């Protein structure tokens, strides 16, 4: 069987399942729920994950393809437990289908929910903004302290103490807790700058 035939057969089967879910939606379900449930039913019936979602997304609006998927829908067995988008986690696979023993195909993997994904993105964004604000505030405070020291020798001791606190605050930050690689690189660079500055001015007793 050619690769196109494999893709065609799988996408037609998946389209038939999805269309049945769309035509008989649960009262509180949304298109995202239909897609997740369609993946589950496909896995239950075929014994493997549906791996051609991108081709299906491209083809599902083509009129000729819609006609073919409409015919394929008649070949799909009735889908049960649709109300409330209940997933059949333990439903047996098609007995005529060979189930792969590979870890990525032997078990159904439910995609992360839309709300959970949004919450995670919002949390990561908050952490990133907080780190950026800390970095910006630290740079601004450090610059102000350096300028204060140069302009007022009377407050030199106080400036040095405050500057040391700022440096220690930066050095205590854990790069592994940064939300992304960019923030982590910025924090590491800032720490290196402090270490270099401290090394060059250690004879003066500064951080």
Q: Could you explain the architecture of this structure?
A:
- By secondary structure, the protein is an all-alpha fold.
- The protein folds into two domains: 3-85, no CATH class; 119-204.
- Helices cover 62% and strands 0% of the residues.
- It has seven helices and no strands.
- It has helices spanning 3-23, 31-46, 53-59, 63-73, 114-151, 156-171, 181-200.
- Helix 1 packs across helix 2 (31-46) and helix 1 (3-23) crosses helix 4.
- The chain is rod-shaped and about 90 Å long.
- This is No apical meristem-associated C-terminal domain-containing protein.
Give a topology summary.
Layout: H1 3-23, H2 31-46, H3 53-59, H4 63-73, H5 114-151, H6 156-171, H7 181-200
Helix pairs in contact: 1-2, 1-4, 5-6, 5-7
Domain No apical meristem-associated C-terminal: 48-194
Protein name: No apical meristem-associated C-terminal domain-containing protein
Region (Disordered): 89-123
Coarse structural class: mainly alpha
User: In percent, how helical is the residue content?
Assistant: 55-70%
- State the order of secondary-structure elements, H for helix, E for strand: HHHHHHH
Number of strands: 0
Biggest pleated-sheet summary: none
Indicate the low-confidence ranges by residue numbers.
Answer: 81-93, 97-106
Number of helices: 7
Mean pLDDT: 72
Percent of residues in beta strands:
under 5%
Rg: 29 Å
Please give the alpha-carbon distance between the first and last residues. 70 Å
How many domains?
Answer: 2
Organism: Puccinia coronata f. sp. avenae
InterPro entries: NAM-associated_C (IPR029466)
Protein name: No apical meristem-associated C-terminal domain-containing protein
Region (Disordered): 89-123
């Amino acid at each position: 069987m050619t690769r196109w035939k494999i893709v065609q057969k799988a996408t037609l089967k998946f389209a038939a399942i999805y269309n049945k879910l769309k035509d008989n939606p649960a009262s509180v379900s949304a298109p995202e729920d239909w897609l997740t449930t369609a993946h589950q039913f496909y896995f239950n019936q075929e014994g493997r994950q549906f791996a051609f979602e991108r081709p299906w997304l491209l083809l599902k609006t083509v009129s000729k393809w819609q006609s073919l998927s409409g015919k394929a829908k008649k070949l799909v067995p009735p889908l049960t437990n649709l109300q409330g988008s209940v997933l059949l986690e333990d439903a047996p696979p098609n007995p005529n289908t060979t189930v792969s023993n590979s870890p990525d195909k032997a078990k159904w993997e439910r995609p992360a929910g839309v709300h959970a994904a949004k919450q995670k993105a919002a949390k990561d964004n908050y952490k990133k903004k907080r780190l950026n604000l800390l970095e910006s505030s630290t740079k601004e405070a450090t610059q102000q302290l350096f300028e204060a020291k140069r302009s007022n020798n009377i407050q030199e001791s106080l400036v040095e103490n405050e500057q040391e606190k700022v440096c220690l605050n930066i050095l205590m930050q854990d790069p592994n807790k940064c939300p992304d690689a960019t923030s982590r690189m910025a924090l590491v660079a800032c720490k290196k700058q402090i270490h270099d500055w401290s090394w060059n001015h250690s004879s003066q007793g500064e951080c």
